Amino acid sequence: MSDLLAIFTGAEDDASLVADIAAYRPDRVTVLVSDEDQDLLTNSSGEGDALRDRMAVLLAAIERETGATVVGLAGDRTQLAGWRFDRELGSKLPVAA
Q1: In sequence order, what are the residues at sequence separation of 6 or more whose Cβ sits closer than 8 angstroms to the Cβ of residue 25?
Q2: Which of 93, 85, 92 is nearest to 5 (CA)?
Q3: pTM of the full structure
Q4: Across residues 38-65, what is the average pLDDT?
Q5: Which of 50, 70, 74, 84 is a Cys-bridge partner for 79, taking CB atoms 3.0 to 4.6 Å apart?
Q6: CA 66, CA 36: separation in Å to the nearest integer?
Q7: CA nearest neighbour of 22 among 58, 55, 51, 53
Q8: Percent of residues, the chain, with pLDDT higher than 70
Q9: Residues facing 29 on adjacent strands
Q10: Which H helix or E strand runs over 23?
Q11: Are residues 9 and 90 in contact, defined by beta-carbon separation less than 8 angstroms?
């Protein structure tokens, strides 16, 4: 059984990160939304709606592409205190030219 933490930041890397997650073939995935977006998850604004829609699409894509179970969605790393993961994957950092 393998547990993976997927750390999502900007939407431009979503497809790439889902492909990376699928390559590791985890059994369970926990999704962490980047810190700057955590307040939007509970916000009733258009931006909040867009983020929740994005998360719904991502969770479905992860389950479809990997066959893994998405066991949780966190908005802050402190919510995961005491949790253990076999691997953590996040958006790639930009490379300086």
Answers
A1: 2, 66, 67, 68
A2: 85
A3: 0.81
A4: 80
A5: 74
A6: 27
A7: 58
A8: 85
A9: 4, 70
A10: helix 14-24
A11: yes
The pair of three-digit structure tokens given for residue 95, joined into one six-digit string: 């490379």
DSSP-assigned states of every residue in 29-83: EEEEE-GGGGGGGG--SHHHHHHHHHHHHHHHHHHHHH--EEEEEESSGGGGTT-
Q: Look up tokens 């950092």; give the residue.
A: 93
Residue range 51-80: mean pLDDT, rounded: 89
Contacts 24+ apart (CB under 8 A), 56-65: 58/8, 58/14, 58/18, 58/31, 59/31, 61/14, 61/18, 62/6, 62/18, 62/21, 62/29, 62/31, 65/18, 65/19, 65/21, 65/22
**Site of tokens 């949780």:** 72
Residue type, 77: R
32, 57 Cβ separation under 8 angstroms: no
